Amino acid sequence: MFVAACPLVLASASPRRHDLLQSLGLSFSCVPTEIDETPRANEEPAAFAMRMARSKAETAGKTQPASACVVAADTVVAVNNRILGKPKDHSEALSFLSQLNGQMHTVITGYCVQAPFRNLDYTDHVCTRVQFGQFEENVLAAYAAGSEPMDKAGAYAMQGTGCFLVSAVSGSSTNVIGLPVEEVVQLLLEYQLIAPVADMASLAA
Question: Among the four residues 2, 9, 99, 146, which has the most C-beta atoms within 10 Å?
Fold first, then answer.
């Protein structure tokens, strides 16, 4: 569908973000980063997600040529303006799921796109409202005991088995999965960093 007009780098080890970009037909390299993901005191969830995305992009960009475009993202789940990160164990996963049970919460993905040769350094965020279903604790415990919740913000994966937990989504579903695809694609198109396959010859010229 799309072709990258420059080396495209995804600053993430997330298979979900990888799959979302790959579904667009894009070729890219993955450059995982290691950063301090500790929220600052009283840091708002959106501010935290954007700071993490920018830090990932900057860290990955240090190893890339100036001709590359780096895309980074960070997703958090927020309940009453409080961040639920990735659970450290199955007990905490169950605690997170119990807090979400029957409640509306917000999934926020901060994203950053940096392409020095296009003078592009853009950071923003997208919010999606998600309604959890109401379940008995033994149902939540059964899901929390599996491997799926352990590397997911809020301890659930809407694109996986955890889809049964979600009763309604208001906003971008790809944002919940980990990358607001519409916003990122629009930005990449605007700066001619990608193009539809049929238009690639004119873009290169």
Answer: 9
